[in-house]
Amino acid sequence: MCQHLNHPPKSRVRGHSTFRRVILELDFQVFAQVFNQWAQQYVPIEPGEWLAVDGKSIKGSVTDYETHQQNFVMLVSLFSHKCGFVLHSQPMENKVISELHVVQQLLEVLDLSGAVVTADALHTQENGRAPTPAGGPLSAVCESQPSQVV
To answer: Between the CA of residue 129 and those of 37, 126, 134, 147, what are the distances in Å?
Structure first.
């Protein structure tokens, strides 16, 4: 870790609280954009690779917890089973956009040709829009980029 942070080998690695303070000061949108560009450049997705897409709410981001106005922030991520880490992530706010739409956007911008993408049933629901193929909107996205949906 010292080598990656350009610290002299005998110096002490910064503690958890230091990294936390630095991360709290970052512009998350910019950080996510830089991470996604890096991942696309250095971590190719190979044909037949298994990927999982899912969203998780960020602890402590819930507002108006006990009302119908409840809101929270989520991070929707594409995870590689082969590599064991996230290849792409995108933040979303519950009151602004649905997780389904974020997943569709994520799949549209990535080249997933030949990859197998697993997703929750939530990501394949129709939302009262024009009819889509039997698998729902997620299948329609993946059909335009030949990958499989499980």
So the answer is: 32, 7, 14, 23
Cα–Cα distance for residue pair 37/22, rounded to 1 Å: 21
Each of the 150 residues of the chain gets a pLDDT tens digit; together they read: 667 667 666 666 677 888 888 888 888 888 888 988 988 888 888 888 999 999 888 887 888 878 877 888 888 999 998 888 899 988 888 888 888 888 888 888 888 888 998 888 776 666 544 334 444 444 444 444 444 444
Distance between CA 53 and CA 124 in Å, rounded? 12
pTM value > 0.85: no
> CB atoms < 10 A from the CB of 123, how many?
25
| Token output for 40 | 């696309």
Distance in angstroms (rounded) separating the CA atoms of residues 45 and 30: 23
Residue 114: partners with Cβ closer than 8 Å, 6 or more residues away: 46, 47, 48, 49, 146, 147
